Structures are given as C-alpha cells and as structure tokens.
Amino acid sequence: MSKRIKIGIIGCGMIAGSHVNGYLAHPQHAEIVAVCDTVEANVKRRHAEVLSGAASRAEAATAEVEKADTAEAREQLKADAALWAEYADNGVKIYSDYNEMIRECDLDAVSLALPPFVHEPATVAAAQAGMHVFCEKPMARTATEARNMRDACDAAGVKLAYQSGGTCLDPTSYAIRDYVTSGKLGDVYYGRLTSYRVRGRPNVDMFGYGRWFLHSVYSGGGTIYDTGVYLINRSIYLLGSPQPATISGIAYRGMLPEYTGEEINDVEEHVSVFVRFTNGMSFTYENGWSSNMAGQPQGIFIFGSEGSFSNDKLFLEKGEWDTDDQGNRRRYQGNLVETPLELPDTSFPDKFRDFLDACNSDAQPVSNGDVGLKVTEIMSGALLSAKLGREVSVEELYELEGLRAEPIPGWHIP
Questions:
Q1: What's the predicted TM-score (pTM) here?
Q2: Helix, strand, or coil here: 18?
Q3: Longest Cα pair distance anywhere in the chain, in angstroms?
Q4: pLDDT (tens digit, 9 = 90+) per residue, 122-149?
C-alpha cells in the first residue's frame, strides 16, 4: 500500500489555497502536517483553512455514506471521512521560517506556494533534508537556478515536480504526444504556440497579486513566466521533451494604460520566441498579457510530414496522384482529413496526485526537474536574446547568467 505523504506547505499567500485543496482532495495519499509563511496573518488563515476544509469534507463524506451505490464506495467514503476527521486531533503546525520547519518537522515532502525568487533556496534546502518538492510555476527565474534545483533533487534521490504540469495530464495530451513521438505524424519539424490576452497584467488590469509580478528581480520576467509557461510546458511534453539548442526572442513593454504604481515595473507584456531544438525541430512561441488583437486563432499547432495538430484536432494527409489517360502521374492532389484521436482508455491524475504517486514509486512526475529546466531555458533565453538583439545558444545562456552580480536580476525590459 502507498505511503501517506506528509506535506509541509511553504508560502500561504494567494496561490496556497490551491495547494491546500489539492492535498485535502487525496486523504489516502497526503496529509498536510505544517504550514509556513513569514506573514502571520497569512499562515493563520491557511492553518484555519486546512482544519475547516478537512472538517467540512469529513462531514460531507459521512453524509454521503448511505447514498453510496456500492459497498466499496461506502467503505471508501468512511475511510476518507476518518482521515479528514483526524486533522481535528492531530492539528497542523505553524512555522514562520521554512528552514526551521524542514529541520524540526517530520515531513516527506514540501509544497512551495512561493514567489519565484524563493524557489531555488527552498528546493535545495528541502532536497538536502531528503524531502520531495512540488513547486509553483515558474520553476525558477533563470536556467541556472532551475538546474541547481534539478541537480539538488537528483543528488538527494527525491522527486521534483512543478505546477504547470497539470496542462499535460489528460487523455488528449497523451494521445497527441504518442502521435508525435511514435512517428504517426511523420517527421515533426515545426510548431507554433499563440496565446495572448487583450488586457491581463497583474496589478495593472488585474488586482490582488503580489507586487513581485512586475519586478524582474523577483519574478524573472513578465507574461512568459506567468502565463506562457503553461503552454511552453505542454508543448515540450507533446513534442517528447526535446532539448533546446538556440533561442531567439523579442519582447515589448508599453501597452496602455501605463502602470502608475510606485513599485518597479520592468517586465515584458508581449514576447515572441523562436527555438531550435537539438533534434532538428523548431518552434515559435507568441505570448502576451496585453494586446490589441482579437479573433485570431490561438493555441498549439504542430506540423508533421504526414499530418498536423491544430490544437487538439488531428489532420492526416490523404492525398492522391492525378494521372493522364495512360496512367502517368501528373500532379499530386494533397488533401487533409480530420481524423479522430485514438484516446487511451484510462484515467489521469491531477497534478497533486501525479506528484504524490511519484513520491511513492520509481516514476517521475509528468513535469519533473528535467522538463522544468528546458522550459526555463526557453523563458530566460528568450528575454536574454531580446536584450541582446540576437539569437543565443543554451550554453551561452548559462555563461551570461553566471556573470551577473547578486542578487540575480531578471532580464528586465526597458
């Protein structure tokens, strides 16, 4: 039977609620034993949320027992209710220092609901203590930080997962990846990703976000780190996790209305990136918090020699030769046929269950440290390229990141 993973949540701000609910949804596989934040009000609010959430789930499960259709379902509800009820007796510990929590608390894993600038030190500290790590997106501000996180977890033999992996955990994504990696789409040579909002800048058009979103030192970047990371992550999964080789990017900041707050705003609102992979594939990414464009196709488009994907629709080439009266070929009449995807007959876990399952097995999370590193190489490389006005290689990216002074800044956009 799988071990019930003891979780400590580090960071109790806005995004922490999804971590609380994510682990409470899997009582047989996870137990939240501690919460940590430097802001007392935040940690107290999340502490209360864990206890009240467990109590309400226990009450609801108990009420559903008699309505269950099978004996197995009734027993499952009873077992879940008992585990949720245990929170009232066991309690949840509160910490203001994650190093103290890691040192003192009996944990199997930590869940980082933190801003990007804290991801690397918290991950390394947890890994060195032998704890698995689930990290919010983006995994890191720089490729160097992401590599340090991946290497620390690998050296300690613990699992590293990060939040945007949830974009890959569905039958359609699995089926697309199978078509791409198995050769059913022929030679996959190019892809394009387009995603933008009309207006959606944190703390400008949207409120209730941390001030760090607009400050490259703390966030790493703007739209590509905030929203682009999801689709970049999914594209890497769909393509079979190829290694980026070179990156060319342009970035823009200056959409109206201008930011009038007192905090620093030096991150991009739009970015376009061209990536060459070592296996010969290439991919274009367009992402924006703000744009004066609407009604244009958005999503992921994958080009293969025998077919293509337009978002989740599969098109296979079914052309034929036009011949003369003697049967000689004259010209090829290309034709694309929309073809139903062969979906796997299996269920897929959510991102938290995927992480918990990995902690209890030899499997890696769907979005693990290797995948997160490639995504971060693309994001950091894109903004470095935009700053330099030329294409950069991944090797050069690490060299230039290593030259920067502490504290490590992002690649700010003038």
A1: 0.96
A2: helix
A3: 87
A4: 999 999 999 999 999 999 999 999 999 9
